[in-house]
Amino acid sequence: MSLFLYLLRRILQALPVILLIIVGSFLLIKLAPGDTVDALVGDMGGADPAFVARLRQEYGLDQPVLVQLWRYLVKLAQLDLGWSYVYEQPVTQVLASRLWVTLLLMLGALSSAFVVGVALGAFAARRAYSAADNIISTLGLVFYAMPSFFLALLLVLLFSVKLNWLPVGGIRDIGAFHTGWRLWLDIATHLLMPVLALSLIYLAFYMRLMRTSVLEVMDLDFVRTARAKGAGSSRLMFHHIMRNALLPVITLLGLQISTVLGGSVVIETIFSLPGLGQLAYTSVVKRDLNTLMGIIFLCSIIVVVVNILTDLVYAWLDPRIELK
């Protein structure tokens, strides 16, 4: 019952945050020059002013900004994200067809960066100031300093152009007509370079933070007490040190969800992945307000849910933390 009340309270707290994000994003987008009609007319090479005025009236863009905002909020309260005038279908369908690609990219990048970063950070901490520690720290600094788009281009040049091992872009080989496990293997092959390009930077974050956290925990009193009682090195590392050293890393993992969503825009554009990142870029170029607002709404929900899950994992790792 306490867990249910905690989740209910967090959801109620998140509603004003999501509302503020939607209102602020809507008003900021409206401050930008141009709208959907301008983009459509530009693609057509021009149109009669009367036709443009009629089209803007049909889309409801002739109304004041506050009236447009109120209409959008009323539809959003009914879980209606509106109509995409660029893709000629409901925004919900557009997002549903792209969401799974972005989720696969995010989960692959964050999970691989977290697991490898935590393992390397703990390994470096146990051999602090040794040659292995220096090599790992140097590689982490290199990955941290390298922009994701530059790393992505290097991967394409090496594995696609020079070695011809991996496909240069897309989510699957359309002409192969794969089904079943062959289809998922094809998707995994196409996602290998994007996941690697997006994860290496975050791997450096987790590795450096985990190394510092393990070194701090190793000097605490309860670790020295457990060592004095005869606890083995493996039990001491995994049961006492790792469990406590993971807390700041879990916090960083929850906070970086929004950063990964932003970074996926660049990666999906470079590798031509049909995900939310590329859809957001296209929506900005085409001035597709409803689709862009739908992406912002969906991403805000994802970030809120992940932060709630992070707090739950926090309480599971450290029983001293209570959910209040």
TrEMBL record:
It is found in: Cell membrane. One of its GO terms (cellular component) is plasma membrane. Keywords: Cell membrane, Membrane, Transmembrane, Transmembrane helix, Transport. CDD domains: TM_PBP2 (cd06261). It holds the Pfam family BPD_transp_1_N. Its main location: membrane. Residues 99-314 form the ABC transmembrane type-1 domain. The chain crosses the membrane at residues 12-32, 99-123, 135-161, 181-205, 245-271, 291-317. The keyword Nucleotide-binding does not apply. Gene3D superfamilies: MetI-like. GO terms for biological process: transmembrane transport. SUPFAM superfamilies: MetI-like. It is a multi-pass membrane protein. InterPro entries: BPD_transp_1_N, MetI-like, MetI-like_sf. It comes from the Bacteria. PROSITE patterns: ABC_TM1. Belongs to the binding-protein-dependent transport system permease family. This is ABC transporter permease. It comes from Paracoccus solventivorans.
